[in-house]
Every structure is written in structure tokens, then in C-alpha cells.
Amino acid sequence: MATREELSEFLAAAERRAYKQALFAVRDQDNALDIVQDAMCKLAENYGDRPPHELPLLFTRIVQNTIHDFFRRQKVRTTWITLFSALSSADEDETDPLESMEARPGSSSAESAADHVERSQVVNIIEQEISRLPARQREAFLLRYWEDLDVAETAATMKCSEGSVKTHCSRATQALAKALRARGIDL
Amino acid sequence: MNNEAEFAYRVRQALDESADRLDYRVSLRLEKARRLAVERSVAKQAAPVWVPALQLASEGAPSTEDSRTRMSAWLLRFGLAAPLLALALGIVGIKQWQNDRMVAETADLDFAVLLDDTPIDTYAHQGFGVFLREENGM
């Protein structure tokens, strides 16, 4: 059974990666932080009595499930908003959704990258390209190569076959390498 | 495969680097979340666990953890079900007793009326009540 100190140490070591993964998925700092907090609380409340060596895989799964739950809730919310928007009068909503979508590449991360040293620029570009990968490919790539899960563990976490994990990882690697090369980065 | 692993390793280095230089605001928020989670874990572990009284009798007996857990779960279920069962039986019993009493009273009344010499129509007559009251008053 993990002690209070062991749990705290584990969370301190894992929280940044979890946050980054959530951020890649939801692309919003506050939502990503909420997801990590939810996942931490779920782990502590439901699995706090597990041995320390079981915590990493459990936490990874909880983070992924919490991200999926977030998207499910967002889908329901979007459905209702779309429904109410359709019912409301047409002249109320004249904003172009493409405007908000175009705002992302020019956001603070891209601007701040220009002020950083070369290494920081490279890191930022890598992050941007990772966030542009298809969701399942990104999930497989990060679980496999950042969280260090093996193929079977990744498949169990993603609830898919091991073959799918290999395919997702391979495609993610190729797509990422191609995108980085196009931006002048050859790893 | 080697190329893929090497490429992934370099990406991983970049991601680790990025994760190490998070905003102060984000780091602070993560620290708060961590503290909250640890507090909840401690609170849950410290929460009192209800143990059925009957379980104490089997405390000394040699038994496995599983059987003890099953036993306590069974006792818990029984402990909840027994009062409900007793209440239901009590309600049915009271209703039955009231029924029996009402039947007995009606039977006594019918029996008395049938055995009495007074014709049954007399009871419906208005003057008969006055007659009985006057007779009792005397």
C-alpha cells in the first residue's frame, strides 16, 4: 500500500506529463488542469491503497479515461448548444467559426517561440506538430514512447488491439517526422 | 524500427524539456491539485469502517481474509434486511389481530341479538331507545 509520501512523490513526478498529455488533447490550459486534478483525485480516492509500483499504469489509464470523459461531455454540450442555436434567430449569431479556429496558430506559444533560444523553438514546434496529429495516433505515440508503456499496456489503456497500437505508432512517427522536416527540423 | 525508436527518443527528450519548464501558474495549480488528492486519500483511509457486532464473535476463529469479508458483507445485508422484515411481519400481524377482533365483536353482537326474546324490529323503533334509557334511569 502506497503511503502518503509515496503517493505525493509519484504524483509530483507524473503530473507534468499528465498535464501535457491533457493539453495536447483538449488544447486548453484550464481544461487540461481540471482533467489532471480529476485524475489525481480519482487515483487517490479509489486506488490510494494500491502498491506504489501499480500507480503509474493506473494513473495513465485514469488520465486517458478522464480525457475521453471530457470529450464525451463536450459532445453532449455541443449537441445542446447546436440545438438551441438552431432554434434561436439567425441574426443573433453572425460570427464565423473559422475566425476562432484561425486564432490558435498565432497564439502566445507561437509568439513566445520567436523570443526563445533555438532549442526552445524546436521544442515548441515539436509540441505543435504533436498536437496536430490525429487523436488516436497521438495517444498511442505518447503512451508508448513518453509514458513508456509496452504495446500490450498501451492497447489495454486505449481499449484496442496491439496491432492497432503498432499501426498508430508507426503512422504517428511518419507523420510527425514529415511535418517536422517540412518545418526544417530533422531529428 | 530502430529509426522509429531513435526518433521517438528525441521527441521524448523535447517533451521532457518542455514539461520541465511549465508556467508558474500551471505549476502552482498542479501542486494544489496534488495536495488535494493526497488529502482525500488520507481522509478516505482515516474514515471509520462500520463493523457488524456479530463479526466480533468470529474474530478469534481461524478464517481467511476472503471468508471474513464475505461474512461481513452477508451480515451487513442481513442487518439491513432483518428490521425491514420484522416491520413487515408486525404490520401484517396487527392487521390480522384487528380483523379477528372485529369479527369476534360482530359475532358476539349477532349472537346476543339472535338469543334475545325481543323481536328484531323493536331495535329499529325510536321509542325503544327512550324506553331503555328510562328503564336504566329507574
Question: Concise description?
Answer:
Chain A is built from 9 helices and no strands. Chain A has 187 residues and is an all-alpha fold.
Can you describe what's shown?
The complex is a heterodimer of chains A (187) and B (138). Chain A has 187 residues and is mainly α. Chain A has 9 helices and no strands. Chain A has helices at 4-26, 29-47, 55-87, 97-102, 108-115, 118-132, 135-145, 151-158, 162-182. In chain A, helix 5 (108-115) runs antiparallel to helix 6 (118-132). The radius of gyration of chain A is 19 Å and the shape is globular. Residues 96-103 of chain A have low confidence and may be disordered. Chain B is mainly alpha-helical and 138 residues long. Chain B has a domain at 1-47. The longest helix of chain B has 51 residues, at 65-115. In chain B, 8% of the residues are buried. Chains A and B meet through helix 1, helix 2, helix 6, helix 7 and helix 9 of A and helix 1 and helix 2 of B.
Largest sheet of chain A: none
Gyration radius of chain A, to the nearest Å? 19 Å
Q: Which geometry of chain B do the CA atoms define?
A: rod-shaped
Secondary structure tally, helices of chain A: 9
Q: Could you state the oligomeric state of the chains shown?
A: heterodimer
Biggest beta-sheet profile of chain B: none
Q: Strand percentage of chain B, roughly?
A: under 5%
Number of spatially distinct domains of chain A: 2
| Helix/strand order of chain A, N-terminal first | HHHHHHHHH
Structural class based on helices, strands and sheet pairing of chain B: mainly alpha
Radius of gyration of chain B: 41 Å
Strand content of chain A: under 5%
> Which bin fits the share of residues in helices of chain B?
over 70%
* Gap between N and C termini of chain B: 122 Å
